[in-house]
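Closing statement on the PMV sub-project.
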Amino acid sequence: MEVIASAPGKVILFGEHSVVYGEPAIAGAVDKRAFIKIKNSPNNKTILKSYDLNFEAEINSKSKKYYLKKGKPGIIRYILEVLYQHHDHSPIEIILSSNIPIGSGLGSSAAVTVATLAALYRYHKVKFNRKSLAFDAHKIEETVQGIASPLDTLVCTHGGIIYLSRSKKFQSLRIKFKTPFVIGYSSKHGNTGKMVKDVKFLKENNPKIVNHIISAMGNLTNSGKYAILHNNVSKIGELMNINHGLLDSLGVSTPELSRMVYLARKKGAVGAKITGAGGGGSIIALCPKNIDSVAAEISKYEKILKTKFTNKGIYYQVKY
Ligand code: PMV
């Protein structure tokens, strides 16, 4: 028996950081994906390998220990935790492939966690639905990272664009948002925990100012929802630019991120902003036109992906 499951990466469109203080956020699944194949082991050992990420490890899922034969994958911790919590520890072979850049704030860990969990559930014929899958995957992320927002696993499970309200209810914005965008990702990885802490510190030292910035971010996220529902691309771009300015004021931009944002706007993006925690990581530039010139300009300095939103969340296939 062989199971293949796949989950998409994500970008945060509006509301990173302010979401930590109860404000709404909007994130969308992108058409870059992680794939997990699980099959019976040919040699009585549990093996995890990835040709894309160039690693191979022998795993003991019971003790959460592994022996690396090749490469040094951080993402292994998520797979190990899924196996530890949800596998019967029989020998299996797991093959990971992914075209989501790892560690760039694009949801690679959530996508790998969701896909591994779905594949394992199908392998063991465990019943699940999207709600329970997103919940269980979030628990795994929390165990591995200490803190994790539920947004990533929700988006990677359900696909589409998701609005997380102030009361933490999520709503799928079932729309056809076809405008392509460029993601620019810096070789410098961001550290989400550190950035969240830095913002907290700034807020505590300047409550009268920073509280207003955070609530302005919440208001612009709600305007963003309205603009998305009406497919008002220029308004979405305008709000992204404001959101970037506010994120910059919280100290989460870097020279590399700011350079990408300004180059994208200069070359015709209608909006460009940091996506995710900042301090490294990625920017997103909305490009109804000029996508190639925006991509070419950014790629002189950093890596890029051309992508668009996808409604396709988790899916799997079983072969007997
Ligand atoms: O680093 P990312 O892309 O997972 O985004 C983090 C978003 C924050 O709002 C900064 C933190 C959070 O948990 O919501």
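The two ends are 5 Å apart (CA to CA). With this model delivered, the sub-project is considered complete and its resources will be redirected to Aim 3.
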